[in-house]
Amino acid sequence: MMSIKPFYLNFLCCLFLIMPFVSVCQGLPDSTKTKKHILIFPVIARSIETDWSFGTAGSFTFHVSKKDTTTRTSNIQSIVLYSLKKQFISAINGAEYFKNEKYILNEQLSYSSFPDKFWGLGKNSPDSSVESYDYHQYYIYLHLLRHLGNNFFVGSLFEFQSVYNVDYKKGGLFDQQNIVGRNGYHVSGLGLSFTYDDRNDAFAPDKGTFAQIYFNHFSPLFGSDYSYTNLVLDFRKYFRVGKDVFAMQAYSFSNLGNDVPIRSLATFGGYNSMRGYYDGRYRDKQQLVFQAEYRMPVYKRIGAVVFAGTGDVGHTPTDFTLGDLKYSYGAGLRFRLSKNEKLNLRLDYGIGQNNNHGLYFQLGEAF
């Protein structure tokens, strides 16, 4: 996962330049959905994980089949980013919808060299325990779904991580808590997914349901250094309220197994979940999050949102209690990059407990 990150004099600001270098439109007239759009723009940002950062982002929206106007729009996003904290990120994320949505391919490819923070494991890790560490990582995620009919899909997954050059404080939290993978590792896993998806848009749906369960098993049989299993439940629902949209999500991430390496643990916070918390502020084997967002058009391509969420991490499923759940809330602005597609540039400000807060600048909605 990638987020763009702390505060300056207790105020977090974000400056971004959206000046398209290239805007290429090819295909049929404006009234059709088969048009291709390429946007490339410079980015200057400040957020709670990166300090000031600079780079280039791009988005390519298209239809795989020019004659298919009912299939949702495919999208590939890319970003190259370097921060004043000497963090480097390059990533490609995509979702391709093939003819009649018989197949859907989701992918994420990334390389990162990332000075990061670690507060220790568990939902009660204190603010004062924070330690810095560095790592390099290659990451590959591929998810191919096959349409079974009536909006049901079955899928297969592949995930690969290579984490190396891990630099941490010797004798500190990594050693005291015997963190798996602190000396570097690589893992690879295969899995299956089952999905129901009748959302009406790939980028910013205003009606429909998305429900997915998947597991991904990492094993030495696949070349992995560790053996464990990820189990994920993701439920999203979208309602129209006049011209507005109410969206909600319930998300559960569980690790089954004893040897789960550091970058595969459940992380709390970030630009898509519990906005306002540093991504990884709380980290453990399990995560549970509920969040909702109300989206409103303001003027032409400009929109606004308010959002709130609650959740926590735990070592086992029994660690979750209502009294201990953490919360976050906030608001944001949206700018639609294309008249024909609902791909939004979003700017969100989130507030959590214990002086956690942050500003996020991203492409696409949080969920």
Summarize this entry quickly.
The chain is mostly beta strands. Helices cover 1% and strands 57% of the residues.
Describe the secondary-structure layout.
Elements: E1 22-26, E2 36-47, E3 51-62, E4 74-83, E5 88-97, E6 103-118, E7 131-149, E8 152-167, H1 173-176, E9 185-197, E10 208-218, E11 228-241, E12 244-256, E13 266-268, E14 282-284, E15 286-299, E16 302-314, E17 326-336, E18 344-352, E19 357-363
Give short descriptive properties of this protein.
19 strands, Porin, mainly beta, 1 helix, 367 residues, two-stranded antiparallel ribbon, single chain, disordered N terminus, 17-stranded antiparallel sheet
Q: What is the domain total for the residues? A: 1
Largest sheet at a glance? 17 strands, antiparallel
CATH names the topology as: Porin
Order of helices and strands: EEEEEEEEHEEEEEEEEEEE
Radius of gyration: 20 Å
Helical fraction equals under 10%
**Count of beta strands:** 19
CATH architecture: Beta Barrel
Oligomer: single chain
Q: Overall 3D geometry?
A: globular
Find the CATH superfamily: membrane protein fhac: a member of the omp85/tpsb transporter family
Gap between N and C termini: 14 Å
In DSSP terms, counting alpha (H) and pi (I) runs of 4 or more, how many helices? Answer: 1
Any low-confidence stretches, pLDDT <50, length ≥5? 1-33
Class per helix and strand makeup: mainly beta
Mean pLDDT: 86
CATH class: Mainly Beta
Strand content range: over 45%
